[in-house]
Automatic annotation (TrEMBL):
Species annotation: Endocarpon pusillum (strain Z07020 / HMAS-L-300199) (Lichen-forming fungus)
Domain of life: Eukaryota
This protein's name: Glycosyltransferase family 69 protein
DNA repair in keyword set: no
Organism lineage string: Eukaryota, Fungi, Dikarya, Ascomycota, Pezizomycotina
Keywords, sorted A to Z: Membrane, Transmembrane, Transmembrane helix
Keyword RNA-binding: no
Pfam families reported in the protein's UniProt record: CAP59_mtransfer
TM annotation in the entry: 93-114
Region (Disordered): 1-27
């Protein structure tokens, strides 16, 4: 079996249309703060291919180092006038500029060859790759025959995901893990007849036990309404996202199988071998993967990390500028240092990254397992069947459901959360971006000084008054208190209360679903913070 990405056989990149995920973690929208491994570009014997790709990329975009020509306008060239660099007083400046660019190019070339970033994974990653290539036998990349529950909630109105690269990668992943070891659960709603037909086609090709559910409409009472200060009733967006993700987990409630791993997928393009590596190789120095959650990294273009809204470093700080090394230098900067150390298990308090592997016991256990779980979120109720996604209930305090679930399941001991980000495993939202990640990562160390300076100038990470709170600690917090006698419908008051374990996830915002979004619009919006 070739190790080339499975997604390359699909010519058309599916649009990012998942209602549960579309625009969910867009840096300019939701977050108020702010190739695949083992391809030819990773081996020492393929530097020529590497430079051919660079040259092709630059030529395809009209890049030319003849800056004297570039700095002349069309009109100047027609009239034979001098370009900016031909004027005697400007030649030195142009020469210095060209020399700087050449120096940067040489430095990038040196780094790409001698010190490429996240291009030399631990040996166990290559061992899993060899297993995947060794034969066509089902389950060949799952040496421990571990039971894996794969969950996805999607919104695919054109059927591009189910019929395209995403669906093909999913089926290939099932083959690598072994159909007898996998349960697949896909949930979709409100996406129309084309989406339903595409999902049915995917189901026909699925070789493992599965629950593929399509609902024409999510029941109105599935997401409770809240009252805004102006008296209107709306539904919170995060509560909706939590609900559709939880519907993908419903088969766990009745399953008699005890799963070892749970893999949650967004609408991302991925290499199935990378998914296997995330599951079985992350933090596996002892020979067996050890984590409560292990996240891939998702990219919206070859350079920009996407999921900042759900990601927090080991001390709960939000992300820095979303280019390498992604984290800020705030506090002890341990997550940032882990990136510099090129570890496959960057310690964090939360992450998501489009594809996340979990220890399944946190989603399938009972209250009797409390001592074994020892989770920060605690366990209450005799009918406890495992942790689930949720949203915040406090008005004008929002946190991603993907951050809250990791706040709930993480180890309560400081510095040992059991939550890891794995930069060796990368996914994207289109096949073109994914095909470039193997190249762009090689030079990403270059971004470090620029990221550091921009973090300072931009004031990143943003201040979160609840970041460092300890569970059960008595704190004073600014919260919205409804009061219908006030023109604003309430006011922000400072009150005494007991801190929770998830304050680091939040921001002072409120996101609600739109009642009737127009074609091409996002289905959610921010509610402006009231005065008071």
């Amino acid at each position: 079996m070739s190790h080339r990405p499975f997604y390359l056989s699909q010519p058309d990149s599916p649009e990012r249309e998942s209602l549960a995920n579309r625009s969910s973690f867009d840096l300019s929208a939701e977050d108020p703060e702010s190739q695949v491994l083992f391809s030819s570009s990773y081996s020492h014997g393929h530097h020529i291919a590497f430079f051919d790709k660079v040259q092709s990329f630059l030529r395809g975009r009209g890049f030319n180092l003849n800056f004297n020509k570039l700095l002349r306008t069309k009109r100047q060239r027609r009239r034979g006038k001098k370009g900016l660099c031909q004027w005697p007083g400007r030649r030195r400046l142009c020469f210095a500029f060209q020399a700087f660019l050449v120096a940067v190019l040489l430095l990038a070339t040196f780094i790409a060859i001698v010190r490429p970033s996240y291009s030399k994974p631990p040996a166990r990653y290559h061992e899993l790759l060899l297993l995947a290539q060794s034969s066509s036998e089902a389950g060949r990349a799952n040496p421990g025959k571990e039971k894996v529950f794969i969950a996805a909630s999607i919104f695919d109105p054109k059927g591009n995901l189910a019929r395209g690269a995403w669906g093909k990668s999913l089926l290939s992943l099932i083959d690598l893990l072994g159909p007898s070891n996998v349960f697949l659960s896909v949930y979709e709603n409100d996406a129309g007849p084309v989406a339903k037909a595409a999902l049915e086609e995917l189901e026909e090709k699925t070789t493992c036990e599965h629950s593929i559910v399509f609902e024409d409409k999510l029941p109105p009472d599935a997401v409770p309404e809240i009252q805004l200060p102006d008296g209107t009733m709306r539904r919170r967006r995060i509560a909706y996202l939590a609900e559709v993700r939880n519907r993908a987990l419903r088969p766990l409630d009745s399953s008699s199988t005890k799963f070892d791993k749970l893999l949650f997928l967004n609408d991302v393009m991925l290499d199935p071998v990378n998914a296997v590596q995330l599951l079985f190789a992350t933090n596996a120095e002892s020979g067996k993967a050890d984590y409560r959650a292990a996240c891939a990294m998702d990219f919206s273009n070859p350079f920009k990390f996407y999921d900042t809204f759900a990601s927090r470093d080991l001390e709960g700080y939000s992300m820095g500028l979303p280019i390498y090394p992604w984290f800020s230098s705030a506090g002890r900067a341990e997550s940032r240092q882990d990136v510099f150390d090129q570890t496959d298990s960057v310690r964090v308090r939360s992450c998501w990254g489009g594809m996340v592997a979990f220890d399944a016991k946190y989603f399938q256990s009972t209250a009797d397992d409390f001592d074994d779980l020892d989770a920060a979120g605690g366990i209450t109720g005799a009918n406890f069947t495992g942790f689930r996604f949720r949203g915040e209930e406090e008005l004008f305090w929002e946190a991603a459901e993907c951050c809250l679930i990791q706040a709930d399941i993480q180890n309560p001991d400081e510095g040992e959360t059991g939550i890891y980000m794995n930069p060796y495993v990368r996914v994207a939202y289109d096949t073109t971006t994914l095909s470039w990640l193997g190249l762009s990562r090689r030079i990403e160390r270059l971004y470090t000084p620029f990221q550091y300076l921009i973090n300072i100038v931009a004031g990143l990470p943003r201040f979160n008054p609840r970041r460092a709170q300890q569970t059960w600690q008595e704190v004073q917090e600014k919260v919205w208190v409804p009061n219908t006698t006030l023109p604003s419908g309430g006011s922000f008051n400072v009150i005494d209360r007991i801190a929770t374990h998830a304050g680091f996830c939040g921001t002072r915002t409120l996101q609600v679903l739109k009642e009737d979004p127009q074609a091409g619009e996002k289905n959610w919006e921010f509610v402006p913070l009231p005065n008071g």
